[in-house]
Amino acid sequence: MAMDHATFHEGEQTAQQRWQTAELWDSARKARLLWDHIPEAFQARIEAAPFFFLATSSPDGRCDCSFKGGGPGLIRLLDARRFAFPDFAGNGAFMSLGNILLNPQVGCLFIDFNDGGRLRVNGRASVHEEGPVAALFPEHRRVVLVDIEQVVPNCPQHIPRLQVIA
User: Fold this and answer.
1) Tens place of pLDDT per residue across the chain (166 aa)
2) Which of 10, 24, 26, 142 has the highest CB neighbour count under 10 A?
3) Whole-model pTM?
4) CATH of 27-154 among 2.30.110.10, 2.60.40.1120, 3.90.550.10, 1.20.120.920
């Protein structure tokens, strides 16, 4: 079966062919495991996430992955295909935001270390300093809006369960 070029890029298709997994990705599996929005069943979990990991890349391919924390309420879903989060003051390097300004493609990884739940959310980000998106977090100077392109649920099998030590 030929792979859908809109779903997988050439490198992914090559790897799937090389390691004999291409036939696993029929249209039923794609529909079950590759989404273009955050399903309602996951929305409360995302809005309650106290942190996530944000991956960005410069136009020449230099990658950066950063921890984004702030506790529950960090993420505001505008709808099933868009969410926003505030930029917290940090070291002033603006590695993530600098990448977004030049290359809007981002990857967000949400992990719950209590039950192993995780979602990968990929999309296009933009930085807002004023207007309705910025108004979602008035106490912050900048807010990032992510327009979702792909959501991938992952199996919790290899996520370690962390225990809080008092």
Assistant:
1) 233 435 776 776 777 777 777 676 666 556 666 789 999 989 999 999 999 999 999 999 999 999 999 998 999 999 999 999 999 977 877 889 999 999 999 999 998 777 756 889 999 999 999 999 999 999 999 999 999 999 988 665 665 566 666 6
2) 142
3) 0.82
4) 2.30.110.10
Question: What pairs with residue 32 in β-bridges?
Answer: none
E strands along 10-117, which residues?
A: 51-57, 63-69, 76-79, 82-86, 105-111
Residue spans of the domains in the chain: they are 27-154
